[in-house]
Amino acid sequence: MALVGTGAVAIWHDIAPEGRAAFYAWHGREHMPERVGIPGFLRGRRYVAVHGDPEFFNLYETATADVVKSAEYLARLNAPTPWTVSTVRHFRGVARSLCEVAASAGEGQGGLVATFRYDVDDAHAAAHRARMDGAVARLASSDGIAGCHLLIADAAASAVETAEKRARGEATEVPRWILLVESWDDAASFVAWCERLVASDAFAESKVRPSWAAYQLQNSRDRLGAR
User: Which domains does the chain have, with CATH numbers?
Assistant: First the structure.
């Protein structure tokens, strides 16, 4: 199954132990419903790591890439609720990208997802994107794979300073290129598949080997659930 829109917000983070219980309650009861209630936000998913780190990965799918730069989303980021402010101060090692969905293919939504974060210099970006257009569909047709998606971050939009970002109190990394691979296989088989992918030439234009981790779905909420 392809992603449900052509925009996405991708977020990775750890959580301090003393904030863990509050994080789960806040994210499920307030934050996820709030986000999918923003016009153009269609679905939110939270995952926890089964291999690698950071521990949590959050994906929000939006109707278009313009939605992640919209006035409605920015207004929400600049007016965090008291519960948001008290919770996000426990976040550690945050990476966040506001993205265009450059390619997306697949037959389903997997309970597992692997995230591959990497960088491609400007001289090779067009060639890499063109090659990945075909590679995404081929990877999505692999045994055990439910879907594959290429996201490209808008670096300027991702770097905008907001009240919510300031509440976290740490610098935020902005991964520029992101490959997401969803699986309906078991975790061990999927991790082995990912290790083979990293060892292949799939990321040939990348400056360095991708940083990757595999995650299991914990929570999912679509726009209908926000009513």
Answer: 7-226 (3.30.70.100)
